[in-house]
Amino acid sequence: MGPKPKKPAGKKKISKAERQRLLQEEEERRQKEEEEARLKFEKEELERLETQRVEKEKWRQLEQKDRERRNEELEELSLLESCFPEAEKLKRETRALAQWKHYTQCDGSPDPLVAQEMNTFISLWEEEKNETFEQVIEKSKLVLSLIKKLKLILLETPPCDLENRIIAQHQGSILRLQELLSLKMDVATELLLREASTLVDVDSGNMEKIIRDENVSLFVWANIKKNPRYRSVKFSETQIGFEIPRVLATSNVALRLLYTRYDHVTPLRLTPATEEDYEPMVVEPVKKEEPIEKATTEEKTVIEEKASIQEVEPEPKQEREFSLVQEEETNLEVLEEIEVKRTSDHEDENSETNKYELEMRLLSEAVSAAQLHLVENIVDIPYAFEKFQVDLCHFSTLGGVYHLDILELPPQYKPVKGWVLVEIRQEGLQRFTYPPETTDEPDPENAFPPIEVTLEVHKDVIFFEDPKVIRWDTEGTARHQEGQRQGITAGKRWKTDGISCVYYDRENRLLTFNLDTLGPVALIQDAHINMPYQSWELCPLDVNRVVLTVTTLFIELQIHIKENLCMLASVKLKGQEHQCHLEGRWMTPVPFILALKEAGLNIFPALYSHFYVVVNNKVPLVEVKAYRQIALLSSAFVFRWSKWNMACNSTNVVIKVKEYQAEGAENRPWSLLMFSGDRAQILRIREDSDVFSEALKDNTEFHSTLYHMVKDFASPRAMERVRSSDSLFIDSVCHMLLSIRVLSYS
What we know:
Helix content is 41%, strand content 18%. The strands form 4 sheets. A 9-stranded antiparallel sheet has the order 19-18-17-16-15-20-21-22-23. It has a 7-stranded antiparallel sheet with strand order 1-2-5-6-14-10-11, covered by helices on one side. A 5-stranded antiparallel sheet has the order 3-4-9-13-12, with no helix packed on it. The protein has helices at residues 16-80, 83-105, 115-127, 133-156, 164-194, 246-249, 292-309, 317-374, 474-485, 589-598, 620-633, 644-647, 706-711, 716-723, 727-740, and strands at 207-212, 216-222, 232-234, 241-243, 253-260, 395-408, 414-416, 419-421, 451-456, 468-472, 494-495, 499-505, 510-515, 520-526, 535-542, 545-551, 555-562, 565-573, 576-577, 637-640, 653-659, 671-675, 680-682. By secondary structure, it is α+β, with helices and mostly antiparallel strands. The relative contact order is 0.09. A hairpin with a 2-residue loop joins strand 7 (414-416) and strand 8 (419-421). Residues 29-229 form the IC97/Casc1 N-terminal domain.
């Protein structure tokens, strides 16, 4: 055996004293680090507390300064916001002037505001008989104009100026005109069908008639030949037509497509008087102040008149002295009367001034209430819907109504020995029931399949998605006609059942579908398809002129506003320019809003829109105050959407703002401004910051109004432009902001 290997040398053992020394050094180092950390923490805490104290003291000083000038700022804002009642007063005068002009024109058309004239017009038209379709179309232009005027009266007039009686009167006139117009078109269609046999087409042997107008288009086909193989009905020079089953091809029927640009089928949406406590105010014109010289002239005249009365024959000296005394006393009495009259005139002037101030104050309250009503949200959905019934709060009809009817062919004209004989039925135009209500055992040759219909979609209506087809429930109509006549809205019976095989040719704007039974048909689109908005901007263009740009998922709209007028400047559809028939047409705000809605460009939330759109609803009063003050400043400042508006709570709004300058405006920095209705401040964060903070920007203060907040960094020229803005212009800008609600729906 070899020698055993040596054990490797182990580590040197640490003595107990050495171990104790190392542990003590480690403990001392740990205690030193803890002490340093404690001192650092205490220092940082002291610095933090000092910073908080300084911030609180600074905040307290700012609040104190804000309280000291709050009343002054609110008084100045109140003076600036007097433009809103002034604008309403001007609009009232414009409405009164328009009524007077209508009265002086004497053109034979009734005044829609006068119930007696409307009743007379309707009664006289009811008595007119045997009107052709062309005559009815010509008369319909006046009727549609009257309906439009009545609707605008209900929409434009503040609630305080509308009594419930007047609302019911105007709505009743609208319904009577709509019903009479529909009746007249039925009668005219019957007259046309009586002579169908004389208007037959040589090739087909059937009658075809097309009458087109701006608001109404009529397509009529009468089955004269009754050829069972002739099932495809196409109107000449169009793609419009029907594919009919055998049973109709062999029946004595006519097909009618009556297309109306307007919608008189959907029940009239009521306009309740929301401000029932207000009574209509009788505004008396303010009298002009009489010049001071007038009193002096009156004084001289009265004295001379009194003196002339005293002129008599010469008297004895004593009597003459007595007469002089009497004359002096009379003159004193006259002077006292003049003094009393002066005092009375001064009191009258004060009374007139007080009356004017009271009128403007009441008008201001009425305008504020109407503006607040525009941004209110209802708590519950107002209607309960049946199966297949269309929710007209969610969807809106577009492009008018297509009245599809199968009509019984009336007796035809018969020439007899130079005379033309015709049988006239008292019941008038009759609908042909298809499919029949009761049938025997089904016969394969006489089945009742759906009818295929092809329609043209009007070129002036924009559909962002394929349109949905709905039909009017004629069975429910009869049950609800009386309720509609009384103003009850329970008769909304647009439904989606009974419609199949829908195909939309977007390029040619042709819509093909199958209907189980014919009746009124309409196209609908989601009323909130362009909500919420992706961004918005309000930018000055010139004195009393701005452009409001609203960008949504599908479109970008540019709206120009000047004085009391609005205009659609451009439409970009998915980034591409789109020609719209409304471009370049100046209209007052309410007709402008209605026109955009009818064209499918709906960017105007309703009271119930928050049920269908995910939005950041702001407190209504805060929203109204913000819009009013943005409108006041719109002549000189640019306002834009900010992403932080969604991050703050519902009691605050956040917007970007900067002063507008024709040159170098893009290079000027934006300020983030937060407003709570009672306080405005510039935020320290920027638009590209990572976290939202309400911290105040350095070297800035907060104010009670947006106006005084931007005044801190604005140039004198900008503030002069603000103060010189026209009242109607400010009111129009505010109305558009209130209607679009950019702060809650973007």
